[in-house]
Amino acid sequence: IAAFPRVLLALDCTHVKIQSPGGAQAEQFRNRKGYFSMNIQAACDHNLKFRNIVARWPGATHDSTIFNNSMLKAVFEDGMGNHLILGDSGYPLIKYLITPLLNPTTPGENRFNEAQIRTRNVIERAFGVWKRRFPVLALGLRLQLPTVQDIIMATAILHNIAIVNNEPEVLVDEEVAQLIENVIPAENNNDIENE
Predict the structure, then answer these.
(1) Which of 133, 98, 123, 122 minimizes the C-alpha distance to 40?
(2) pLDDT digits (tens, 9 = 90+) for 95-110
């Protein structure tokens, strides 16, 4: 991908807002920003196409925990040749998962970090396109967890189909944004908080 040779995927997590699932485990779904969510890990290619997605972890789960328990890690541990994944500093630096340097001091280290971040940005763009295509992912889902997981996976598949078919990105104007916002009015939104 872009400025990094051998990079196959960019990796990150994003939060999808949910209502409180209730019960003894509910607080596991409250993320560091204070709202209930699922923490979704995804890896995409240079075309913004999702190549791996994990949609089962509560919002309080750290990104590295999701990765360490993922099939993606298992596949790369078993050997993917000399291919690499780019991740942010929330992930461990390992032979096939390249993260930014924590304290760059030289011009070369700064250039490395800039190139790594610029190249890794493809996953941020993929999340943005995905959530604009399916605004419910950004606004929140008031459904049972298994249904939330199904919707996340279904929208990821539809996103990939749109990429393959060169569908244009969805541009949300102010009028449409207001209509979307009215689907979950703020005054009735006790369990799904705005970011």
Answers:
(1) 123
(2) 999 999 999 999 999 9
pLDDT of res. 5: 85
Please tell me the total count of domains within the chain. Answer: 1
Which has the closest alpha carbon to 68: 57, 79, 60, 59?
Answer: 57
The two three-digit tokens of residue 77, written as one number: 């541990």
Encode pLDDT of 128-178 as tens digits. Answer: 999 999 999 999 999 999 999 999 999 999 999 999 999 988 776 666 566
Give the pLDDT band of residue 195 (cuts 50, 70, 90). Answer: very low
**Comparing C-alpha atoms, which of 50, 56, 45, 123 is closest to residue 91?**
123
Instruction: Take residue 42 and report the two structure tokens written for it.
Output: 């995804």
| DSSP string for 129-176 | HHHHHSTHHHH-B-S-HHHHHHHHHHHHHHHHHHHHTTPPPP---HHH
pLDDT at 100: 96
Q: Is residue 195 in a domain?
A: no
- Determine the structural domain holding residue 184 and report its residue range: 7-188
pLDDT of 189? 40
Written as six digits, the tokens of 195 are 């970011």
